[in-house]
Amino acid sequence: MSDLSVANSMRRPRAPRKPASPAPAPDATPSPAAPSGGAGLDTAYLETLLGYNARRAALSVIAVFLRRMEPFDLRPVDFSVLTLIAHNPGVTSRQLCAALDILPPNLVGMVKNLQKRGLIVRKPHPTDRRAQGLHLSAGGKRLQREAQSTATELEHDVSSALTPNELATLNALLRKVYQR
Amino acid sequence: MSDLSVANSMRRPRAPRKPASPAPAPDATPSPAAPSGGAGLDTAYLETLLGYNARRAALSVIAVFLRRMEPFDLRPVDFSVLTLIAHNPGVTSRQLCAALDILPPNLVGMVKNLQKRGLIVRKPHPTDRRAQGLHLSAGGKRLQREAQSTATELEHDVSSALTPNELATLNALLRKVYQR
DNA sequence: TATTGTTATACTCTATAACTATA
DNA sequence: TATAGTTATAGAGTATAACAATA
Hints:
- Two copies of one chain form a homodimer.
- The first copy, chain A, starts with 49 loop residues before the first helix and ends with a helix.
- Chain A has six helices and two strands, in the order ααααββαα.
- Chain A has a two-stranded antiparallel ribbon.
- Chain A has one domain: Orthogonal Bundle (Arc Repressor Mutant, subunit A), CATH 1.10.10.
- Chain A is elongated.
- In chain A, β1 and β2 form a beta hairpin.
- The first copy, chain A, is mostly helical.
- At the A-B interface, α1, α2, α3, α5 and α6 of A face α1, α2, α3, α5 and α6 of B.
- Chain A binds a DNA duplex through α4.
């Protein structure tokens, strides 16, 4: 279900929100020691849910990713595609779709775009004439290398509230959740 | 950036994919002990990234959530809205937007829909005549209670690969990432 | 008969501008 | 002048059906 791309955030000068005094809960039972959920509301229950927490964390990290990748003009899904091609030269579109859970029709435009930018090249598949092997151009390799460095550096910043051990634990536990 | 809703998955009888023999990497350096990324590809690097792992895990959990919530006809964002209203009766739309990171124009339709279903009712705000307090109807309370039970049960299933302690750790670390 | 890559297209999600009523 | 709620709409993301070429 769904691919690994992400919404077009990163361009909204939205109206400022109340930072401190978020209008007291105007009704009954404001929850004893109400944990702040960003608006003074009781979000305690939602914060017990793995899906809720994983999505909030993902959006938070991806927001930083979007900013840092702007110089490369790469969305998360573009970076994933380039990176998989870099590490798996000759990979087919179909394999990328399976690995990233992208539907084939939705990958076509991305590959076409990356190709138009001169980052990837398609070569005939050695054994299957239906398929095409995807490879990085020299420029594609350079860009992917720089983007990967940026992504790796990013890792430290987005996890500044965590120790290195905690980050390693977090990643390991997340993989356990989706790898089945 | 972005709200907590989710794509319209849960209705795709997609074509079956190669389960075991996913066509060997047709080119150089297939990575020594290549960890399977779902298609026999080397996805090792992507799996070191918090954003990648968090998003994959979130999508995995949400896919289960979508199935289990079908009887209630509730998307994740609908469940979040109902739950916040349940725990914060009289909450305003604006507060929901801030807590869930939803843009006001995008909440309007959801609230309207939940109201049309007779799940929530709007009452005049006690002190601000611009605003409206949101409350659950009797039916809304019943549905939210059942849905919350379902969500809590779901928690065990989606984390079947984790011990209870690991799940608690995972949730705590995720909150640390996005709460800042 | 099944799969790869593709086009066309519908539908959902996310974002911006702008308006009104009230503060 | 600023905020709550709203409308309209643009743009990005996700999904399905169907086709030609090849296996």
